[in-house]
Write a structure and sequence with these properties.
mainly alpha; about 75% helix
């Protein structure tokens, strides 16, 4: 019984670590893309200001400046996609571990994470619980025949 409890605790901690890793991945991607966008904007500003007396209305300079602006505005959108992608990868890996557990034990383990402080952990646990519910167990023991209504033809 102790090894089952340790296994559940280890799985719960693994789901929490996956949630934390998802949050970290989102912040790292956002930081890197914003730093890259700021660096691009800074380089474009230096490029435009470095040539004194040059005509700033050249088409390629306008296109370069517009490209830098679009990059600065779109970078956070790309970084925001990193969190859900990372969460989906972690959920797929954790689903294989959940499949090895008893169904009721897995459901209780995932339900315990429903009130976790990390939103990513809650979302991973909810996704795993949905996938667990999507594949109900097959019937091992046949059920009894349903009772009739009384108007069936009797055998014999």
């Amino acid at each position: 019984m102790t090894s089952a409890k340790q296994g559940v605790a280890a799985l719960r901690n693994e789901i929490r670590r996956a949630g934390d890793a998802t949050s970290r991945a989102r912040w790292v991607a956002l930081t890197l893309t914003l730093a890259g966008a700021a660096l691009t904007a800074f380089a474009m500003t230096l490029s435009l200001l470095s040539t004194p007396g040059a005509d700033r209305s050249q088409p390629h300079q306008i296109v370069d400046a517009f490209s830098a602006l679009v990059g600065c505005l779109c970078a956070p959108v790309g970084a925001a996609a990193a969190g859900p992608i990372w969460r989906r990868v972690k959920t797929a890996r954790l689903q294989r571990e959940i499949a090895a557990l008893d169904r009721d034990l897995a459901a209780r383990t995932l339900a315990a994470l429903h009130d976790d402080s990390s939103g990513d952990t809650r979302q991973i646990a909810a996704a795993l619980l949905r996938r667990l519910d999507a594949h109900p167990p097959t019937e091992v023991v046949p059920t009894l025949q349903p009772e009739g209504w009384g108007d069936e033809v009797a055998a014999g």
